[in-house]
Amino acid sequence: MILDEQHPGPFVYTDRMSERISEAEFQQHAEKAIAELERAFGELAEERDIDVQVEGSVLSVTFEEGEPGKFIVSPNSSVRQVWVSARVSSFKFDWSDKTPGFVYAATGETLRQVMTRLTQEQLADTTIAL
């Protein structure tokens, strides 16, 4: 593959992330992010056939409507990342002070943006916004 100005290669988010925050800061940011997603999915569950649960600090969203499936969002303190398993893929999000929020380095999308996109795909409904 030739990489040049016209073909620069894959997008790489270059903000230096998670390695600079403490475990306590990470836990605080992760708990807040998971709580926000729990609220957003909880609101969606009032309209759609999904089940939302948090056990410990792990968020599980089970879809009964559309294509059956499950999303798992969990903090990984040892590497200061939030991990998402959804739609036969996994995503690892690093904290960015610049955003501020958890960011998927491969695309530069925030955790909420990725979760919205995955939910839209899961339910085949592009009008969904978390």
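the 2nd protein, sequnce then structure:
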Amino acid sequence: MIRLESADCCDKLDTMADREKTGEATGVEEGAATSEETLNDLLNPVRQRRRRTTPIRRSFLQDPSGEGMEAPLRWFVRDRRELALDLFLLLNCTASAPPWDVEMAAMAWARALDMRQTVGSETTVSKNWSWLEQKELICSERHHRLRKVYLLTEDGSGREYARPKKGEPRGFFRFPFIYFTDRWHQQLSLPAKAVLLIALSQKTTFTLVTERASQWYGISADTLQRGLEELRDLGLLSTWLVSRKTPRARLGFTSVSHHKLNAPFGRQGEP
């Protein structure tokens, strides 16, 4: 008799688990939150104080010497840490006030980034947080079985984070939430994401000679070129040649490629 009751109990638990997987939880009218709902909750305009962008220091792209060999962006490209980059950017968008932290389950971060809701995704997110912590871009602690993640300064120095202000050496650029809300994080490759960040840090019209930029940002010329081409193919970047008279050049002139970001990333009315 006891065995039958135990079997019945197991059957009921299996049924409840099946319902939870399909969103048909017992006694709950609403299903699980979707990826869009999770992301919208994180980037809620009221919670974010009406912000649509977040400031990121240029030291994330280049080290103080003006070279890129020790700048964090290079680490992401070198180690192919595309997910870690998206997590770091999303944390910058969502940590809106001191102590610049977000407490959320790894599965919820995975859902916000449109990852499959599996234990594997949960583990992958956790491993990438750990990688970011090793690079001293974040720190974290356990709180009620959840990982509370804190921003650290963008240069990888491990210093306590403070919101960038005007007048700081090397300054900062503004990273738009639309990167996530329009799902560009899904569409762009890692080289394109790196070039997008570099482009956002430039003036409205800019040059990016890949051989020189490779030294400035610590990213190979081939990777930068692939990123530029992908942004152009997607209509996010316009490129044109500007020629100038150069008496000692073979043809008497030289040409340099000029670039400009287009909507939704382009900035209007800026120099």
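The CA atoms of residues 39 and 181 lie 7 Å apart. Strands lie at 53-57, 101-104, 138-143, 146-151, 172-176, 205-207, 237-245, 253-261.
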